[in-house]
Structures are given as C-alpha cells and as structure tokens.
Specification:
By secondary structure, this protein is of the alpha+beta class. Helix content is about 25%, strand content about 30%. The strands form 3 sheets. A 10-stranded mixed sheet has the order 5-4-3-6-7-8-9-17-19-18. A 7-stranded antiparallel sheet has the order 10-11-13-14-15-16-12. A two-stranded antiparallel ribbon has the order 1-2. The longest helix has 23 residues.
Amino acid sequence: MTEVTSDSERAAQLRDKVVDELLERGEIVSREVEAAMRKVERHKFAPEASLEDAYQTFNAVVTKRNERGNAVSSVSAPQIQAFMLEQAGVRPGMRVLEVGSGGLNAAYLAELVGDAGEVTTVDIDPEVTERAARLLAEASYPDVRVVLADATEGVAAHAPYDVIMVTVGAWDIPPAWVKQLTEDGRLVVPLRIRGLQRSVAFQREADRLVSTSVRICGFVPMQGPGAHDSQFLLVTGTDEIALRFDDGLPAEPSLLDNAVRGPRAETWTGVTVKRGEPIDMLQMYMATVMSGFCIMSVDKDLDTGIVAPWNKRFSMAAVDGPNFAYITPRLTEDEQFFEYGVHALGPDGADFAEVIAGHVRTWDREHRGGPGPRIAVYPAGTPDGRIPELPGGRVIDKDHCRVTLSWPSTATAAGDQDVQYHTAEQGE
C-alpha cells in the first residue's frame, strides 16, 4: 500500500467520523448536507494542516494571519459549516453567492446545487481568491466562479441569487446583499449584534429580512469597506478594565471617571443554569434589554480586584450614566450549577444592579427555553412607525440598515421560528 493510498483512506475514515458526530449532535439533519460533507475532501482545502488537525470537528484551520498575528482567513470548523449549510437550505439548481472565499465551503455548495446550479465565491483579498481557485480546480470543482472584488457590493453580474452565504463576520448588511437576492431568497450571515456574533438565516420579505434561525458562531471579521472597529472605554484610565462598545460609546463617557472609587454592590438573582447549559440566548436577551450594553474584559496582569468576574476575557456589562455593572456567575454548593449575579460600581450601583438582576429574572421566567429572538433587518432610514417589532423590541442602527431584536414569550409557539441552541462557554 502506497503512502498516498494510506493517507486517502485515513482521510476518509476521519471525514466519516466527523460527519457521524455531527449527525449524532443534530448539526447535520439533511441527507444532502450529509452526502456533501462525506464526499468533499476537506483536507485538500487545508494543506497546511495535518489530517488529524484538518478533521477536528470543532476547530478551524487558520490559513492566513495579518502582521499582528491575527487570523484574517481560515477554513471554518466542520460543525459551523454543517449548521450554516443547513441554515441555507440549498437545493439542486439554485444560484448561490458565497461572500468570503476559502474553497471548501464553495465545494460543499457546488455539491448541493448540482450540475444545474451555479456557485460564485467572492473575496477582497487576492491571495485568498488565488488560493481558493487553485484548490477548487485541484479538487475537481473548476466550475465554481472565484471573483476578486469588494464583497459588500455583491456580484451583480451573476445575480439574482437564491442564497447568499456569508462566511466572514459582518457588522452591517450592505444593500447589495438584499437587492441581489431573489424575492424569496435567503441570506445566511455571521452578524455582529452589540458585540455578540450570531449566524442568522434571514428570509427576504420585500425590502426587509426576517430571521428563521439563529446560532452562536465565530468568524474572522470582514476587511475593506465592510470592516468595523469596536470602541473601548478604559474605566480606570489604564487597560485594567476595558468596556467594549460595538455601536458607539456612551454620550458622556467621562461620567464614569469616579465609578470605581466607591464600594462594589453585589446582588444575586436566584437564576441558575446547569454547567454546560446554553447561555447564548441569555446573552442576546441582555443585549436587547440593556441600553448601555457592552462587553467587559480585565487585563489579568493589571488586575487589582476592583471587579471580580468569573470570566476575565468576556462578561456581559452595561453602563448607565456614572454607573457600570456586569453579570457574573458563581458555582452553587454542589458545583453542578451556576447562579447568575450582578456586580455594580458607581453612586447608584446598588439600584443599577437590581435593575439588571430583574432583567435576568425576566429572561428566566418569560423567555428561557422559548423560541428565542426574532431578528429583522430594515433599510437605513426606515421610520419607527414602519417597524412592527416596536414597541417592546430594540432597534440597532448601522450604516446601511436597522436591525431589530424582539422576543416572543415562551407561550408563543416555538414553531414560529427555528431557533437552534448551542452551548456557550459558561461564565460569559
């Protein structure tokens, strides 16, 4: 047996193992996605990695880093590719646009659309498109169009598309992505909402998009005109405590200058979650109801104990004038559950902590285990009166669109939306 034959057989075994695991977890639910992921040889699109690394179910393979060492292009983890393909609902004969090239996902899409369909993949980076075109040709997918262009403009030459699948993190939804969809087309996009990234499957309804599925995910951010930087507020004037805002700083950030000079208020909610239980919908709910929502991180090398979050890298937080607070869990005595609490600093910290604790209790009482958020996207400039999710929801204004978050109660039939859950790291 030659080494090439041995590697090929080993790759097939690893590929089947990954697909079997994804089937067991419910990430793959259709025969079409299963067949595509069993057929396409993932390792050929990740030649930098060993076979074992290429076929890690939950790990991406980084294929390019920038000068600071940050990943700017990667082959996504099989688990994320599987559920996004399921979100997309691609069928034979469809015309599909992929935003963000790598080669592998385009190959899956080519299998799903078949000989009667079309797949176009676009990226702003010439190194990425050259690599994708070469690997697709070598893997016998020469009919996939690989386009070098600013993806925020879509690819009008081959529109309209039944599905547009975005495989890079997007803060905004450019008008071209909506206009280049068919009337009932679907957009699947890793959308950043108040600092939280979620893969959202949207169905087009005239000039708006309405969510049908929401999944937690992580992708490298868009480059070029579609890039968006968060803003940081350093509470102590140093890097010790940083509050990251995705949609602009508070109107008067200087009000927080003295917040850390007083004692820390703490309150506990009585809301518990089992270790390993999903909390991504709690995160989304708090991002909806807290006006000054942000993400807090603590530099472990500068930490003086002013704040005491469970997770120093990522804690849900909020600002209200001269006060800021964050949500943090603690283990119960039996160490089987986490109870969520709120720590707050500032002159009205105790009252602010109680307000946020009330939101956590409301989520637990009215939305936990329910259908999750309804996310809708409207063109920028759409007046509030034309947004049926208001009042009661939240509007997040971006450059090209208005994103709304609203929450049906647990009494609403979960069948209204196929919201799928995924375990997030506890302590966030």
